[in-house]
Design brief:
By secondary structure, this protein is of the alpha+beta class. The protein has helices at residues 12-24, 50-53, 58-80, 197-222, 228-245, 248-261, 265-276, 278-293, 354-366, 369-377; strands at residues 3-4, 7-8, 93-99, 110-119, 122-130, 138-142, 145-150, 153-157, 160-163, 167-170, 176-185, 192-194, 322-326, 342-350. It has three domains: 3-191 and 331-386, no CATH class; 198-220 and 265-319, no CATH class; 227-263.
């Protein structure tokens, strides 16, 4: 869509929504009979960069925007019902992020709505992501394929799950962030499947072998060696030189020394490979031994590091996460690509923001997640409920 003065040019539908937002979205306090004159801060649609829009095909980016508009309206209405919540005097800003299509499911779009909520001494970030696991788990690359590390979930209702514990991480400034997450699905079926130990081990070995082959090619380029015919010619030349220069016992000793010290270039390259790829060789042996010795290879693979840094399975360790991959069979390919097929809602805040932590507890108890689930189950588009 073309932009004018840095803002997205709105369609009639979009203009209507913005009017609606200014009337109902992000009110400073819940509007009731006693607070009709309370001032309501405006909500802003942040400028979406072209780079973000390019991730979504033009033919359905507009419809995806309608879904995100609906998410913002649902968020506003839900927050106004929370006990003890107030954002008086502050503006709640929200915007869209368009994400790359998930691997293995090219027929769906991925995007999210982000809302910055003033709370306590700072802000919290509320995110509703459609068809994307980024906010629920950690991306993990296994043998060139996208996978996810996801902690164990607790089922709250049919199709509604929450993480069993808060996730902590440090942002670029060194601040500790806390993340609470909820997964909303059509039904009790999850959009991902667990990767078992056998699959992890086999893919990890392939990944390590590929890395070793890459190093081998690098050595070949830096230190190109002689082929078999050239090696044979070199040996004959060296022995002939000894034969021409020495006689008797000294010639025999020189020949013995030559054969003791001589290494074909292929052997020298292999020695170099063993040094350069020592860690890869070590990890390959470790994983192959586990593949041969471990029982219950169909159990979930609890890992957190790349194959080259693998130290062992992490079953039972605090915060251990399961390796998973998207399950194509979950997705309904008869739906429009922009249609949400699962949602991930997250609440993120600074670890020292007590009020934000308390609001997170309130969200877990009072937020109407069943409403989001019911919308997923409907045959009509997400935004039909909120027009």
């Amino acid at each position: 869509m073309k932009k004018q003065n840095g803002l997205t040019k709105l369609t009639k539908f979009g203009a209507y929504l913005i009017f609606l937002f200014q009337y109902v979205v992000c009110s400073a306090q819940p509007m009731n009979e006693n607070s009709k004159n309370a001032s309501s801060p405006r909500v802003y649609w942040s400028n979406v960069k072209d780079a973000d829009l390019k991730a979504l095909p033009k033919e359905y980016s507009r419809d995806a925007k309608k879904v995100i508009d609906s998410m913002a309206i649902w968020t506003d209405r839900s927050f106004n019902k929370l006990s003890g919540f107030s954002a008086s005097g502050s503006t709640i800003e929200w915007h869209a992020i368009y994400l790359p299509k998930p691997e293995c499911t090219p027929y769906i779009a991925a995007y999210e709505m982000r809302a910055t909520i003033p709370v306590g001494v700072g802000t919290g970030l509320l995110t509703i992501a459609a068809n994307d696991l980024s906010n629920l788990g950690q991306p993990f690359l296994l043998n060139g394929h996208s996978r996810w590390l996801i902690g164990s979930l607790e089922q709250k209702d049919s199709g509604i799950y929450s993480t069993r514990w808060e996730r902590h991480y440090e942002d670029s400034s060194g601040k500790t962030k806390v993340v609470k997450a909820w997964l909303i699905c059509f039904t009790d079926s999850l959009p991902y499947v667990v990767v078992d130990r056998r699959e992890y081990f086999e893919e990890a070995i392939k990944e390590l072998d590929a890395s070793k082959d890459s190093i081998k090619r690098e050595i070949g380029l830096e230190r190109p060696g002689k082929n078999a015919r050239q090696e044979e010619a070199f040996r004959k030349s060296e022995l002939q030189a000894i034969d021409n220069s020495f006689q008797g016992n000294e010639r025999l000793q020189r020949e013995r020394d030559f054969f003791l010290t001589y290494k074909p270039d292929s052997v020298s390259q292999e020695d170099t490979l063993n040094v350069w790829a020592a860690v890869i060789i070590e990890k390959t042996k470790l994983i192959k031994d586990l593949l041969q010795s471990l029982k219950n290879l169909n159990k979930p693979a609890f890992v957190s590091s790349p194959a080259v840094a693998f130290e062992g399975l992490e079953d039972g360790m605090p915060g251990a996460r399961i390796l998973t991959r998207l399950r194509p069979g979950y997705f309904r390919n008869n739906m429009p690509p922009e249609r949400p097929q699962f949602l991930v809602l997250t609440w993120q805040y600074d670890s020292d923001n007590v009020d934000a932590a308390n609001l997170g507890e309130t969200l877990g108890k009072e937020l109407d997640l069943t409403g989001l689930r019911d919308i997923l189950q409907q045959g009509r588009p997400f935004y039909g409920k909120y027009q």
